[in-house]
Write a structure and sequence with these properties.
The complex is a heterodimer of chains A (95) and B (206).
Chain A lengths: L9 H24 L5 H22 L7 H26 L2
Chain B lengths: L14 H32 L1 H8 L4 H26 L3 H31 L7 H4 L3 H36 L9 H26 L2
Helix pairs in contact in B: 1-6, 1-7, 2-6, 3-4, 3-7, 4-6, 6-7
The chains are: A mainly alpha (95), B mainly alpha (206).
């Protein structure tokens, strides 16, 4: 279907790279701006890291052009990990 | 429809199956590191202040340099696969050599970084380490274990890419048969992906 309907281009890889570099600069700047260890700082750092990870998975690992089943699998794994974090948070909060 | 059909070219090959298998392996890797991230989260909650204090020993410049190195190496791998799709074998090989050089650069950086920590006694067994608060020691333990395990993945990834280079040169990986190249690339991107989270957690949050 949509598989490999795109033509490979260097420009696409370079744009992704530029976005990742800009986000790296932003995350370093944000760590100073938010003071480092507050809940806000941790949240901002993890949010930016997740945006970067999305760029890598979508553009560099070509998930954008892959069959829907890969996206479903990734979604399940992310959901599994997220549920671990939530359960951990609940467990920690109720101790 | 027909996306996962067996090729009728007569070759005993299933590229889509290989890629799916690679992704399943990557999921086990993500959950392996995921478990470690959970351990990190627990101790970060428990020893909030101690984590902040000990994290000041981390060198942001070296960490940022390694981040730039890994992102660049991810780019060179992606470019090499693009080059392979365009039937430009020589460029693909050159870009993979650059990637391995960057991996080497990453490990050299890591060596100097760990050497510095060990020199300052921030290592298990040293007197300085034994006098640290429990949470500070826990941070260092997680730091060595997680970045060490990640470093091992960098080495393995570089070896896989070296095999890919050899196969391209031998003509076993071509424009029409570059499944190994693509899957090797996926593994390398995973190495980058994990570092994207390790960098802020160990270097920036203090």
């Amino acid at each position: 279907m949509s598989k490999h309907s795109h033509s490979p281009s260097y420009k696409y890889d370079l744009i992704t790279f530029a976005a990742l570099m800009i986000l790296t600069i932003i995350t370093i700047w944000a760590s100073y701006a938010t003071g480092g260890t507050s809940v806000l700082a941790v949240s901002v750092a993890m949010l930016i890291a997740t945006i970067k990870a999305t760029f890598v998975v979508r553009n560099f690992m070509h998930i954008k052009y892959d069959h829907i089943i890969y996206k479903v699998f990734i979604g399940i794994v992310m959901l599994l990990f997220l549920s671990f974090i939530v359960l951990l948070g609940i467990d920690y909060a109720l101790r | 429809m027909g996306y996962f059909k067996v090729p009728i070219s007569g070759h005993n090959r299933d590229d889509e199956g290989s890629k799916l298998g690679m992704w399943l392996f990557l999921f086990t890797e993500i959950l392996l590191f995921g478990g470690l991230f959970l351990v990190y989260a627990i101790y970060r909650f428990q020893y909030f202040e101690e984590f902040r204090i000990i994290a000041e020993h981390m060198d942001i410049t070296l960490g940022a340099a390694n981040t730039v190195i890994l992102i660049t190496s991810s780019l060179t791998v992606a470019l090499s696969i693009t080059a392979m799709k365009k039937d430009q074998d020589n460029i693909a090989v050159l870009l993979l050599f650059v990637t391995i050089a960057l991996a080497l650069g990453f490990m050299v950086n890591k060596f100097f970084e760990w050497n510095e920590h060990i020199h300052h006694g921030l290592v298990m067994g040293a007197d300085v380490f034994n006098n640290l608060q429990h949470g500070e020691g826990m941070f260092l333990f997680l730091y060595y274990f997680m970045t060490g395990l990640h470093g091992l993945h960098v080495v393995v990834g570089a070896i896989i890419l070296a095999v890919v280079i050899a196969k391209i040169i031998n003509g076993k990986i071509t424009k029409d048969n570059f499944s190994l190249h693509e899957n090797g690339g996926l593994y390398w991107h995973l190495v980058d992906l994990i570092w994207i989270y390790l960098f802020p957690l160990f270097y920036l949050l203090h």
